[in-house]
Every structure is written in structure tokens, then in C-alpha cells.
Amino acid sequence: MAHRMPFCKTLLATATAAAIVLPSQLASAQVLEEIIVTAQKRESNLQDTPISVQVLSGDKLSELNIKGFDDYIQFLPTVSFQSSRPGMSQVYMRGISSGGDGNHSASQPSVGVYLDEQPITTINEILDIHAYDIARIEVLAGPQSTLFGSSSQAGTLRIITNKPVIGETQAGYDVAVNTVKKGEVGYTAEGFVNFPIGDNAALRLVGWYDKAGGYIDNIQSQITFAASGLIADNSDVVEDDFNDVTTSGGRAMLKVDLNENWTITPAIIYQKMDSGGVFHHNPEAEGVGDLETTEFFDTFYDEEWYQASLTVEGKIGDMDLVYAGAYLDRDRDSQYDYTGYAEYLEDLYGNYYGNDCYLYAADGGCANPSQYVAQNENWKRYSHELRLQSSQDQRLRFVLGMFYQEAKHDFDLQWIPPDMNSADSVIQGGNTVWQTKQVRNDQDEAAFGEVSFDITDKLTVLGGARYYRYENELYGFNGFLGHCTGFYDDNGKFVEDPENGTPQFPCFDTRILDDTAKNDDVIGKLNFTYALDDDRLVYFTWSEGYRPGGVNRARVEGVPSYKEDFTTNWELGWKTTWMDNRLRFNGAVYYVEWDEFQFAILDFDVSNLTIIRNAGQATVKGLEFDVDYALSNSLTLSFSGAYTDAELDDDIVTGGEILAPQGTALPFVPEYQFSTIGRYDATIGSFDAHAQIAWSFTDSSWSGLESDNREKQDAYNLVNLSFGLGKDNWSANLFIDNATDERAEITRAYAGYPSEKDSYLDTNRPRTIGIRFGQKF
């Protein structure tokens, strides 16, 4: 109950602030700014767009001191998430979460992510783009698959960058320094310049460098392995504040007006992110305290990526033609500790094989099971979209399009116990006990369209459909040395024969796994919009969403590929403006059925690898809303929130055992989420001044779906404060993020599995105090 008190206090503060505003202030109160979105693949006023859309504008991103995913996600209450570190996050909308997604070889996300016109959706590996010179972030809640395709079955997250401005010279920079409680000093330098090239072109250049100080301590610890009696010691990697992050990058975008009808916009963006340590702590474990953990090997995630894109916009008669294409290339080298889990593996495999040793050393004795996982990964994605749109001035309007994308993920994961006998290694001459070396190809093709017709000047009907075809290919190797020994028969087929065969190095060549899953279908959408007057409308939407099926990597006969899963959404929403455009109130109530949802199951009686199956059905009921209120020329308030009730309609059963009974709440779905921002602008002498408070509340949620393998994650409140002065073209701000120094329980890892292992708690950044200075020219 204590966690919900700040919500009541915020409402009371809001009501009090509204009550003390003088009548003269209300009479001269400012109006709310118009918000332009592209949620329907074209520019439109937010208040005229019959979709549940939440927007963080570029000004709001700057005012909230937002630099990346962990910052902006707390002000989007229609979105829930789990995250283990920068660049390793999964987002959910409208309760569509089974908690088992994220494996490289498994289900795609249920939320699509876009950078401008280009999809950048990846499994458990969200591109954590540094948020500078961003026009806005749009969150489209509910199935958006008609226009945005696969993986937008629950919603779509869009990051829209600022575009070049022809005929204007603009520039700006921001520098900041901060310190983290119990941690290190961080600093940021960012800048942009926009300059014209002749009369019909402009180039916009953006750059950034951000150093986020660490705050997690890796403390000294030992593990005595029960079966072998060997000891793991981490003295060599003990370090304070070892989870620092360095992010640098740049963006270049050129806009050229070929003539009055045609424009081309090529762009390239590059970013490098190096992060060390871990972003969890173990305050519930014996001998481990707040912001402390025990890792036995170095942990790091170093990645760099670039995306080249081209947008062509033109007119054919009174119709608009748009082409958007992109190529994304992302590389990452990473390593994380696996010693805690090795304690469980030693017991599991020792009992299974009847050995005292899980692994053997070169001298024939037991090898120390301490190990780490080394990962080398590359993603490549090509995407092309061509669409034709009619004039928006017509009574009958349409958008028609074609889409193609191909995504390739090449990944090599090696579990390395340095003490093991190299003769038993999967990698010749190495110390790899298990390797997963696979290539995943996902290909999508689609034709889509939406048609709108104004039945009257108040009533509009929209119908949409998308034909899609997907193909998921997965091939490669995963296993022990014994899985890559054998021979090739006369037909060139590999025959596994651990006793009589010889190792086929590299094991990847054996291709234990080589399979394809594909299908095609059609989904639809129907929308009715009724304008009550010029300032208010209501709408009803029926829509479907999907995400593709795929190949199961388990080497077990009778384990089929998994099929698409679908969402069917019924939604009643409203967009309203009141008090001469000083009060904006938007919202929606919805009901979603999630059919044949994909669920990851680990059943050692079937396979030692996770299996994806279409498990059953779930139902979600909910409410979303946004309120913005300009109380006076000085005081503005915003309040947004979401209520979500998501639960299973069927028992999930495997091997005759009920893993999750009917009525089980879906994981990582807080029942309530709220966000409030209050800002007061004033003039002090010749200076512009402001004071701002931003608060977000995330209710408790479950860490998984299986009844015996999940824990409750506590609710948490986050409060950010900002105070600033400015004059002419400069501004200076003092900010205090997480002012109450709250420890958010974002994700509980290994909750109850294995049962004797303490949970890791992925948490947020402690209280951070900093100063930022910027200028615009």
C-alpha cells in the first residue's frame, strides 16, 4: 500500500495547484501546442488520429534529460518492459507478454520498433539509440500490423529524428556532468548543425559522446561446488563501480528537393556502445548488499552498428508516392559469467550421467566448473517499402503499399570453463564445453492497404488488410563435443556417431540443425470515427495483429516448428480538447484476445534446449489515457496512465503437468502504471527560469509465467527534478534523476530456477545529480 501513496499525493498536488491559479492567470493561459504524428504513415494532428498514440516531443525529451531507452521508457505508461543492461531490453504493450521471449533462436518480439521509416526490431536486443536531436517518440498501442507488419501485434514504438531544414542555418550543443550516488562521475557532449547547400538542399549533422559512470560493485566471493568439492574464487575480478557505459556516435542526413514535387533524403547513423560489468545486484543473498554482486569472470557488451537509409517522396498527379529503404549492420562482442549456473549444471549432469565430475581436467580429475559465455554476433537487415497515398482532401482516401525485408542473425555462443581438458572441447584447441553456432534468416513480404470513406461530414469508416508471407530459416550447430563427432555417409549426409566417429571441426559444418518454417495469410482492420464537433471525436476499432512462426532448435523428433500467434483487438477511444485548447483528454478502453500464443518451455524430459510451442489463449482488458492541462502561462501539467488486466484463458500443460493454470496473470504486466509531469516557467529579472517535477509509478508484476518458477517484482516510484535558468540562446539546468534513490525491480533473473539460487535483481540507476549547459544558434 505504501507504494501507491505517491499516486494519491500527486493527484492532491495537482488539484491544489489548479485551485490556487488566479482567475486572471486562467484568462491569459497559454494553449497547448499542436502535436503532429505519422502514426498512419502520413502527417496528421494527434487529435484527428483515431489511434491510441502517446507522444514524447523533442522539447519534452530535452526537458526530461532523456538520453536513451532507460530514460524515456519510464514516461510511457502504456509500455512495460524487462531489461538486463543497455541494449538488452524487451518491450511489451497491452499485456501481450509470455515472459519467455528473447532467445536468439526463438520468438520474435510482440512490439515493432522503428527508426524513422525503417524497422529495427530485433529479439531481446533493442537498439538503444542515443536520444539527441530527436523530433519525437511515438507509441502506437494495440495491433498495428496492417501498416507496420509483423511483430506489431501489440503495438509499435517509433523514434523520429529531426530532418534537415532547407534554407536555414541552425546549430546547437549541450554539455553535462553528473555524479551517481555510490558511483562514478559521468559526462555528456552533444551537438548538431544544419546548413543549406544551395537553394534546394540541406545537410544535418549530429554527434554525441556520453560516459555513464558505474555504480555496481563486484565484491569478493567463493563458491564450493557440492559434487566435486572444488572452489571458485573471484578475487581477480573484484572491482568497484564496474558497470560504466560509453556511447558515441553520429548521424548525417541530406535532403534534396529535386523539383517542386520530388525530394530525396539519404541518411546514415553510426553508434558505438561499450558497457562493462552487470546491471543487477543481489541484496537478498547472504553477504551481498545494496548495489553489490558477485561475478567470477569479466562481463562486457561491446557493440557498434550503422544504418544507411534512403527516402524518396514525390507526387504522381494528386497522389503521394513514398519509397523507404534501409540497410542495418550491427556487430557485438560480449561475455558474461555463468559460474552460478554451473553449480546447478554440475549437480544436474552428475546425477544424469552418474559421474562425480561434470567436466574433466587434463590430468583426469574433475575440472572446476567455473565458466563464462563468450558471444560474437552480427545482425544484418534489408528493408524496402513502397506506398502510394491519395490526396487527403478527398472524400475517399487510400494508402496502398508493398513491403519486403530480410534479416540475418549470425551468432556464435561458447560456454567456456578454462579448467576443462581441451581434448573435450567443441572448439579444436580451445576450452569450450558447449557451443551454439547458428544462422537465422527471417524474410517477410507483404502487400497492404487502407481505405477511408467519409460517410457524412462527421462519420468516417476505414477498412484495411495486409497479405503477408514469412519464411524463417535456422541452421547450424549446438551441443557438446559428442554432438559433432561422426562421419559423412555416401550420400553426403552427416551421421552422428560419438563412439566411432571423429570430430568434424568446426562443428558448425555438421549442421545438426537445418530447417525452415513458412506460411502466408491475411489480417484485417476496421475503424469507425465520429466527430462530435471540431474539438472532440470518438472511434471504434477492430484490428488483428500477428508475429511470424519459426523453427525449433531442439534435436528431438516430434517437436514441430511453431506457428504464428495472433491478437484480435476491440477498442473504443476518444480524442478531446476542452477549455479553448488548454485541456486535452485522450484515452481508450480495449479488449484483446491472444490466440495460440508462442511460449518457451524447458522440459528436460523432452530436450535440454528451450522449445517454443503454441500454448493456448490469453485475454487482456485495459484502459489507457493522457491528460495535458495548461493551467496558466506559467504552469503546465500532464498525467497519463494505464490499467491492464492480462490472464490465461487455458491451462498450460506439458508432460501431464500444469505449468500455469487458467487465470494466471501474464508476466511483466503491471496492473497500474502512471506518469505525471508538472512544469512551472517564470521570469526572474532578465532570466527565464523553470522548475519541474516528473514522477512515474510502476505497479508490481510477475517475473515469469510458470507457477513454480516466478516471483513477484515489487512496485516502484521514480521522481526526477529539474531547475533551470536561461537567456537569449543559452540555458543551464540542474537535474536530479531518481531523487528518492529508489531501487526499481525491473527484472528478477533465475527466479526460483534453480530453486536454491538467489534471484538477481536488474535495477535502475541510483540518484544522479548533474548540471547541463546548452546553446542554440
Short description, anyone?
This protein has 777 residues and is mainly beta. The two termini are 49 Å apart.
Task: Give the key terms.
777 residues, mainly beta, Maltoporin, Chain A, five-stranded mixed sheet, 6 helices, 45 strands, 6% helix, disordered N terminus
Task: Provide the CATH superfamily.
Answer: TonB-dependent receptor, beta-barrel domain
Helix count from the secondary structure assignment = 6
Report the span from N to C terminus. Answer: 49 Å
Mean pLDDT: 89
Total tally of structural domains = 1
List the helices and strands and how they pair.
Layout: H1 5-20, H2 23-27, E1 36-37, E2 44-45, E3 53-57, H3 58-63, H4 69-72, E4 79-85, E5 88-93, E6 111-115, E7 118-119, E8 134-141, H5 145-148, E9 155-161, E10 170-180, E11 185-196, E12 201-212, E13 217-218, E14 222-224, E15 231-233, E16 245-257, E17 263-276, E18 280-281, E19 292-293, E20 300-316, E21 319-337, H6 339-353, E22 372-389, E23 396-416, E24 434-454, E25 459-479, E26 485-488, E27 494-496, E28 502-503, E29 513-533, E30 536-547, E31 565-578, E32 583-601, E33 611-630, E34 635-648, E35 652-654, E36 657-660, E37 672-684, E38 687-698, E39 701-702, E40 712-713, E41 716-727, E42 730-737, E43 747-749, E44 760-762, E45 768-776
Parallel strand pairs: 6-9, 13-19
Antiparallel strand pairs: 1-2, 3-8, 4-5, 6-7, 8-9, 10-11, 10-45, 11-12, 12-16, 14-15, 16-17, 17-20, 18-44, 20-21, 21-22, 22-23, 23-24, 24-25, 25-29, 26-27, 26-28, 29-30, 30-31, 31-32, 32-33, 33-34, 34-37, 35-36, 37-38, 38-41, 39-40, 41-42, 42-45, 43-44
